[in-house]
Amino acid sequence: MGRRGWRVSGKNVSDVWGLVEAKRGIFFDLSDRVWDMPELNFEERRSCAEHMAVLEQQGFRIARNVAGIPTAVMGEAGEGGPVIAILGEYDALPGLSQVAGLAEKKPVTEGGNGHGCGHNLLGSGSLMAATAVKDYLEAHGLKGRIRYYGCPAEEGGSAKGFMVRAGVFDDVDIAISWHPAPFAGVNNPISLACNEINFHFSGRASHAAASPHLGRSALDAVELMNVGVNYMREHMPSTARIHYAITDTGGSAPNVVQASATVRYLIRARDLPEMQGLLRRVKKIAEGAALMTETTVRSEIVSGDANLVGNTPLEQLMHRNLERLGPPIFDDQDKAFAAEIQKTLTDEDIKSSFARFGLKPRTGVPLCDTIFPPDSGDGSFVGSTDVGTVSWVVPTVQMRGATYAIGTPGHSWQLVAQGKAPAAHKGMEHAAKVMAGTAVDLFLTPSLIAAAKADLRERLAGTPFVNPIPDDVNPPVGAME
Question: Which end of the chain is more exposed for a tag (fewer CB within 10 A), N or C?
């Protein structure tokens, strides 16, 4: 595919690609610094500070403590006109520490954190795109505001849901984002709505041998609840998912009847109404377990994401930008390292990676060399994202950017190992160019914004938005203030 420019309203939109390239070093360095300081949900103090420093350096107006979250930041540039937001993230995952550039498992710090979902690239690439659009608006004297939202705690923290609830996107016309992936293309807008919820059981302690009849076991209640949910799995949609972890067993002494125990459930479904129905059923099972054990149960929602709402005009526009730019270009050294990573994977890993994006498996292809077509993949194996909550209130589009070897599992040491590689930088720059080009097209052609808003209204007609995070649930940031 050729990398030719195109013109809208007399302006060469591909000029924005050069503006991305002009500052690549700044954002490659930002990504690498964030990789070096992997921080978990709502604890991304240093990562957020790094993003704020670059925002200030690049001349953005900065809003801190967005939605009352100390590690959320917003940078804005431009005046008047429409508001286009580019969303970034920078949180890491626990237990995935890994030496960069090494195709064997070797943690930097045993049990430490690692960027196993590529969010060091995600935030930096989004800010890279926003900066290029800012520079384009200034160079051409265009009206409009570009915003970068630094969003923490995507990995189970649902920070964007709290931000939506606080109204920080209320005046945004369009939202754009991306995510690192093995392939490049417009994201098929399918994700699972979810709620993460604690079930706290309370019973009565007792000596397990001398007076077992006086005890009421909260741990028994947790076990019975898990049995009930397992039976429920046969009677729910095949696309739904339910996971759990026992976070408090009530103690380690078997001769004590456990007076308290907690199990955390993650309930996922194709859309909000379906997820809310499953949540009600799981709560009934918890109540039944409490009745059977003569304990009490209290539920507590921790976080929640809405499913993604697609937007055809925006997806078509982003795909046109991808076609004009072509796939990312990787050199022989990039391919050689990716091939070394693939040696640590199974054939099934690699075949599944192709299938997930609706592509026919090919051998001897370590890195992306094509653009996958729109609506690729059947969405059978998808997760959840808090971008979904944004997509219910703002027309939203995402792309996948090719930054790692085909077959690399998400949330793996192999993905962490590739997070600072030249191929990761190239894929991040490619994604930034696509997002920047999409934003510039929207600024130059307001009718596209109107079409995107009309598409969202039509999709949600008759389906009122209910934020999966209740009003009385707050982000766990009190200790940080």
Answer: C
Helix, strand, or coil (residue 63): strand
Q: Give the β-pairing of 396-402 and 174-181.
A: parallel
pLDDT over 60 at 1, yes or no: no
* Helix (H), strand (E) at residue 106: none
Cα separation, 179 vs 403, whole angstroms: 9
Residues 6+ apart with CB under 8 A from 214: 204, 206
Residue-by-residue DSSP string for 144-209:
EEEEEEEE---SSS-HHHHHHHTTTTTT-SEEEEEEEESSEEE------EEEEEEEEEE-B--BTT
Give DSSP secondary structure letters for 376-404: -S--SS----THHHHHTTS-EEEEEEE-S
Are 404 and 344 in contact by the 8 Å Cβ rule? The answer is: no
**One-letter identity of residue 309:** V
| Helices and strands per DSSP (H, E), number in the chain | 14, 14
Q: In what order do the strands lie in the sheet with 241-248?
A: 241-248, 260-269, 193-202, 296-305
pLDDT digits (tens, 9 = 90+) for 100-141: 999 999 999 999 999 999 999 999 999 999 999 999 999 999
Closest residue by Cα to residue 172 from 399, 452, 432, 458: 452
